[in-house]
Amino acid sequence: MIHLETDVAIIGAGGAGMAAAIAASEAGSRSILLDRSLIGRGGATVMAQMTVAAAVGEQTEDHWTHHLKDTLAAGRGLCDERLARLLCEEGVAAIRKLQEWKVGWAAEDGHLKQVQAPGHDRPRCVYVDFLNTGPAVSKTLRTQVIRHDLIRRVGDLYALDIVLRDGAAVGVLAVHLHTGEPVLVAAPSVVIATGGLTRLYRRNSASLNMGGDGYALALRAGASLIDMEFVQFFPIGHLAPRLIGMDPIMWDPFRYKLGGRLLNGNREEFTQKYGVADGGRYQITRDQATYAITKEVEAGRGSPAGGAYLSFEHVPEAELRKAFGPIIDKLAKNGIDLTKTAIEVAPIAHYHMGGVRVGTDMETEVANLYCAGEAVGGANGANRLSGNAITEALAFGFVAGRNAAVRAQAAGAVGDIAADAAEGLAMLQAKGRPDAPNSAALIAALQDLMQDYVGPFRTQEKLTHALAALRRMRGELGDTPFGTGAAYDAERLDWYDLRTMLTVAEAVTMAAIARTESRGAHQREDFPGQDAEWEVNQVIRLAGTGELTLERRPVIREPELEAAS
Amino acid sequence: MSQTARLTVQRGAPGQAHAERYDVPFEPGQSVLDGLRWIRAHRDPSLAFRFSCINANACKECMMLLDGKVIYACTERLTDGEMRIEPLGNKALIRDLVTEIAPPDERL
Ligand SMILES: Cc1cc2nc3c(=O)[nH]c(=O)nc-3n(C[C@H](O)[C@H](O)[C@H](O)COP(=O)(O)OP(=O)(O)OC[C@H]3O[C@@H](n4cnc5c(N)ncnc54)[C@H](O)[C@@H]3O)c2cc1C
Ligand code: FES
Questions:
Q1: Which intervals hold domain Succinate dehydogenase/fumarate reductase N-terminal (chain B) (predicted)?
Q2: Does residue B32 have its Cβ closer than 6 Å to ligand 2?
């Protein structure tokens, strides 16, 4: 067993985790920034391609209160208004900080270029060309992180549990993937920055590491989750032909620039049948497009791979070249010539609005346990504005890191935590099951189940089927890890992932069953329309019995904002 | 139309390396990473290899050797025929196709 010791233990080195580490260091605290993958490479931040929203007011006059108004409107009455405000207000400083660190936001005529994404009342979204926003943000933060001597970076370390003493966090139990050895990171404060859960779905924009680890870590530590039913689907994720070397959400910016026609399997325009004539001009919202495509497929009019066609065939080649830049050549390498072929698209799971409940200091209900980034729930309510997620990761990361540092300095060293971690350590040392089923196939089955039964359009019947199946799978998984726990034991890793994914999938499904209305990203075909009675949040906890419990909570409003509007 | 890649994959811990063969059905356009993931779900879940981003070619974790040449498994396509897959030769072997690729100051 390996013992490490620090002031702030930060789980996950995406945008939020790296921002937290920098802020902790600036506040004078040491940190260990750990990740199950490589530092700055494992999650969504490095994969983001589009834009980042903040009221920096460079393209046109703007103020964070305008951004907040749009964020609250998109959240359909469910945003924790304090967190939404923090996102919009602190987001401005966060984007400026990145600018200072030379991230390379696109600029023209002496000001940053800002584009208007759907749902924003004005051009507000900065970006790095072409499709390079996430890699640039990641690289810039990593360069800063490396400059801080107080930050220790450790990759290939998989966090398994928050270690508690008297109900407060005192560190992290992790496993070193390269040796299989248990690692204890003793720390008087801990930050969960593990990102979202979209790997739960078959069609997703997720990396391997986005199975919702932070939600399960928080639940097992005694913290609660909020808004778990709200999974955002991105309507035109790439489906076919197989496109490699590019992210499946890549088509959106080109639709902004060029339109692009959505066609069904018979090559007819269809969105007008669902109330929105698109006319190739990208007027349809994300929810409407997701609905229209799903319904065409259900009616047997899908494209061959089970989605819709997206066609740029009517756009002159020179215009395509201007809009797509070097991407045209990458597409050519994939055998795709947009002047001659329509590609196939379908809704894919892309972001999760829900997550760990925190206050404005990013502390969870468990003392000394903080959370930041997509892992946090509440700021975006029932739906997220495009561009808000990276802002959220950065702004919340800085806040969490600063506060976790202050707490660590007040609390002081925690000493040896081996006794506190005894239960988790015992599980790690388990011998393994000889009759284990194929772990990779189990994960695929879970993803199929979530896609087909807890997807963008839900019914009581489908959801209850899913819940029963998830509980059955939990039984099948059992309490004894698969594999032997040797160096890079892929089956054991899957078992840990399944333990997390099943818990988190159950949280999503339970909350979706209870919410008998349609709001934002949660659409119930058996309860169409928003119901004023349901302007409440749902909160989930893990009871002592090992079962999840659900309760309703009034939405947290910001009285000051109410008065101002 | 489905084709078949005949993969010879190096397996095992350092000092116990050996080759195993897998026939992998695929649709043209699919990546070597798709093929390795297919093997895990359909033949042997213990096969170990590194990857994170799957599509974006952003994480750069999936480097390995194909017929002796360094590739990203996620951007290299499966082909109808023999393919020899090995771990990077210039990095310490952990197991199967996994090698120590993290920068030295980011290791435990
Ligand atoms: C393809 C794609 C494109 C996107 N485009 C945009 C966009 O244009 N604009 C926008 O605003 N948002 C976008 N988003 C959303 C946005 O990128 C994310 O919400 C945001 O980057 C999340 O940052 P994060 O730091 O919270 O999490 P991540 O960046 O996901 O980082 C989490 C880290 O935690 C690690 N981790 C997870 N579990 C564990 C564990 N158990 N132990 C140790 N480490 C762990 C992961 O390996 C990962 O490195 C996009 C998302 C995707 C997937
Ligand atoms: S899987 Fe990320 S680069 Fe290949």
A1: 7-101
A2: no
Alpha-carbon distance of A230 to A287, in angstroms, equals: 12
Q: Is B108 on the interface with A (CB under 8 A)?
A: yes
Ligand whose nearest atom lies closest to the CA of A33: 1
Q: What's the complex ipTM? A: 0.97
DSSP-based three-state secondary structure for A433: coil
Instruction: Report the candidate in A405, A416, A418 with the shortest Cα–Cα distance to residue A368.
Output: A405
Residue type, A310: L
* Active site residue ranges of A: 286
Name the minimum distance, in Å, from the CA of A524 to any CA of chain B: 31
Contact yes or no for A244 and B31 at CB 8 A: yes
CA A267, distance to chain mean position in Å, is: 34
Fold of B3-106: Ubiquitin-like (UB roll) (3.10.20)
Report the predicted TM-score, pTM, of the whole model to 2 decimal places. 0.97
More confident site: A52 or A563:
A52
CA distances from A325 to A50, A128, A328 (A): 15, 13, 6
In chain A, what are the domains?
Answer: 237-347 (3.90.700.10), 430-531 (1.20.58.100)
pLDDT over 80 at A562, yes or no: no
CA–CA separation, B49 and B57 (whole Å): 16
Q: Which atom of ligand 2 is nearest to the CA of B60?
A: 3
Chain B nearest CA to A2, separation (Å): 9
Closest CA to A307 of A241, A215, A216: A241
Q: Give A302's pLDDT tier (boundaries 50, 70, 90).
A: very high
Closest Cα to residue B61, out of A41, A401, A302?
Answer: A41
